[in-house]
Amino acid sequence: WILVESTGDAALLESCRRLFGDERASYSDALDRHYRLGPPEGWQTSFISEYATMHPWEDFAECFAHYLHIQGTLSVAATAGLVLKADRVPELLTEDLDPGVDYRDRPVERILDDWRLLAMFFNRVNRAMGQDDLYPFTISDPVARKLAFIHRVVGSARAS
Questions:
Q1: CB burial readout 4-30, b (16+ within 10 A) else e
Q2: Which residues neighbour 85 within 8 Å (Cβ) at sequence distance 6 or greater?
Q3: pTM of the prediction?
Q4: d(CA 3, CA 97)
Q5: Would you say 19 and 145 are in contact if contact means Cβ atoms under 8 Å apart?
Q6: Is 103 within 8 Å of 67 (Cβ atoms)?
Q7: DSSP track, 21-75
Q8: Pick from 114, 110, 103, 99: which is nearest to 158 by CA?
Q9: Which terminus of the chain is less hemmed in, N or C, by CB atoms within 10 Å?
Q10: Cα dihedral 61/31/10/5 (nearest 10)
Q11: How far is it, in rounded angstroms, from Cα 37 to Cα 160?
């Protein structure tokens, strides 16, 4: 929220509120409601996690955390030289996936495309070891829009 509020840009704050909700809502009331009633039915269509449904601050924080996880994991994979070859997994890839070390100048669609494929690969590795998915989250279109907003905010913060 600091990255949004510190700009003094009313349009940016309004855009944030449209995506995540109005952060001025009572946090204590939201906390009470969340732990009494749980997440709303069908939460998966608009939120990255159950906890994100609790309050706009938590939605923003959860999305921001996922954004950092995604960026960090892609960067580590790239630094290690991991490349997924299309000819070895044709059911998954139409071209080689060569993750980037830095996605700051790339559109969020590219980040999410690379991430979906890499996460699918890591999930397969975990399953082969008899473990649960490493990344069991679904990035729905509304969540992708939230991640795109965070990508723009982070890019703006870097620029200033």
A1: beeeeeeebeeebeebbbebeeeeeeb
A2: 93, 96
A3: 0.93
A4: 32
A5: yes
A6: no
A7: --TTS-HHHHHHHHHHH-SPTTGGGT-SSSGGGS-HHHHHHHHHHHHHHHHHHHH
A8: 103
A9: C
A10: -50
A11: 42
Torsion over CA: 45, 35, 3, 66 (sign)? negative
Residue 140: left (phi > 0), alpha (psi -120 to 50), or beta? beta
Tell me the Ramachandran region of residue 107: left when phi exceeds 0, alpha when psi lies from -120 to 50, beta otherwise: beta
Cβ–Cβ under 8 Å, residues 100 and 118: no
Residue that is written with structure tokens 């996605």 in the block: 103
Q: Of 146, 4, 158, which is closest to residue 67 (Cα–Cα)?
A: 146
Tens digits of per-residue pLDDT, 78-131?
999 999 999 998 888 899 999 999 999 999 999 999 999 999 999 999 999 999
Residue type, 140: S
pLDDT for the residue 9 = 82
Distance CA 94, CA 102 (A): 23
Report residue 111 as tokens.
């980040």
Q: What are phi and psi of 97, to 5 degrees?
A: -105, 115
Q: Quote the tokens at residue 22.
A: 């109005």
Answer for the pair 15, 152: CB distance below 8 angstroms, yes or no: no
